[in-house]
Specification:
The protein is an alpha+beta fold and 359 residues long. The chain has helices at residues 5-26, 33-36, 39-51, 136-145, 162-172, 186-190, 232-236, 259-271, 275-281, 285-297, 308-331, 343-348, 351-358, and strands at residues 52-53, 60-61, 83-87, 90-96, 99-101, 120-123, 126-127, 152-154, 175-177, 200-202, 207-209, 218-222, 225-229, 253-256. Strands 3-4-7 form a three-stranded antiparallel β-sheet, covered by helices on one side. Strands 12-13-14 form a three-stranded antiparallel β-sheet, with no helix packed on it. The termini are far apart.
């Protein structure tokens, strides 16, 4: 691959021209009809449509790929199903795999009985750009089909939203345990303004009451949410206006989710700040150990095959291997490994150093 940008562009242009020439040749009457219908030729045509501007009968390299027919951007002709994913600063190409495992140690009444192993009971493989929150209901449906629904499902923040807090309970009787995202309004971020939690909502009469005690003037449906508007003349002379709205022409406007979702979201935001919730949520740390075991011990982050179905088989076999290791550990009385500590942490935890720090 050339190092200079101009040389790379020229190479891309030449490749584009060669590929377009081949596609045009396959469209000629004398070309065998079955060749044009081959999956590899269809894939070539789709890639060229995304990465080249084909107007005017020429292939011009685009600045960036352009999605066609809602099928998603193809990042590799060797695995057209794979997609690019990003989480915080990490970017990868391929797939992702949410794992579900049991998280309670079940014991018999016999004090000498061994604890049951924590086993992976559900594996979902998706392309990398699927959002975690879109998989929560899918996971629950699969658990329901296998009669494995839990009372509590402890999940990462990415798997929780207001609708799922309500839907999980109503449809499956599951208490979805996980912190929700914080209110991102400027009032909540600054910690001195009136965010939506400060307003009293009268769902029956479709009115909202602001902290100073004024009522809203309009309640209407805006998409999937309720738009609640306060009268501008009241807000204009309100002494705490600066803590409520920055608009100079309108009154305060709230956008509310449906009642059940709104109340569930507000309740969770309050509950997740309590020690009881933090203690219950700490159980989820076990799945982080499972992911570490799958990554470090089983190489689950490296797909050995192309295509979603084959990668899913790899993920399922990896989960089976982890379960076998855990079952063997119980049968052989092998103690669980302890969380690794860095040399600095072990040094800091030395009793002598702690005594000196206390003194």
């Amino acid at each position: 691959m050339p190092k200079a940008e101009s040389q790379r562009t020229a190479l891309a242009q030449q490749i584009g021209a060669d590929g377009l020439h081949l596609l045009h040749a396959l469209e000629q009457a004398e070309a065998p009809a079955e060749l044009s219908d081959m999956a590899s030729v269809q894939l070539l045509r789709q890639v060229w449509q995304q990465y080249y501007d084909l107007s005017g009968g020429k292939a011009k390299w685009r600045a960036g790929p352009q999605e066609s027919s809602g099928e998603g951007i193809i990042r590799s002709p060797y695995d057209p199903e794979a997609r690019t994913g990003k989480k915080r600063e990490t970017t990868w190409f391929g797939y992702k795999v949410p794992l579900t495992e049991t998280c309670a140690l079940e014991t018999t009444e016999d004090a000498q009985a061994r604890a049951m192993p924590q086993l992976i009971v559900q594996v979902q493989t998706t392309v990398a750009n699927v959002q975690d929150v879109d998989m929560t209901a899918v996971i629950q449906e699969d658990l329901a089909k296998r009669d494995l629904l839990p009372e509590d499902q402890i999940v990462d923040t990415g798997y929780v939203d207001a609708a799922l807090l309500v839907g999980s309970q109503q449809k499956h009787g599951i208490r979805l345990v996980g912190p929700v995202l914080a209110d991102n309004s400027w009032q909540a971020k600054e910690g001195r303004g009136f965010d939506v939690a400060h307003f009293q909502i009268d769902w029956q009469h479709q009115q909202a009451i602001c902290p100073p005690g004024h009522m809203s003037s309009r309640w209407s449906l805006a998409g999937e949410r309720m738009e609640v508007v306060f009268p501008p003349e009241i807000c204009a002379r309100c002494p705490v206006r600066s803590a409520c709205t920055r608009s100079q022409t309108t009154g305060r406007v709230l956008h509310l989710r449906p009642q059940a979702a709104h109340e569930a979201l507000q309740a969770r935001r309050q509950a997740q700040e309590t020690p009881a919730f933090r203690q219950a949520y700490a159980t989820r740390a076990g799945i982080e150990g499972t992911l570490s075991q799958a990554v470090r011990g089983m190489g689950i982050r490296r797909a050995r095959y192309d295509g979603l179905p084959k990668v899913q088989v790899q993920h399922i076999l990896t989960a089976v291997a982890i379960n076998l290791v855990r079952i063997d550990a119980v049968l052989t009385n092998t103690p669980r490994g302890k969380t690794r500590q860095s040399n600095f942490t072990r040094l800091a935890l030395q009793p002598a150093l702690q005594e000196q720090a206390a003194a």
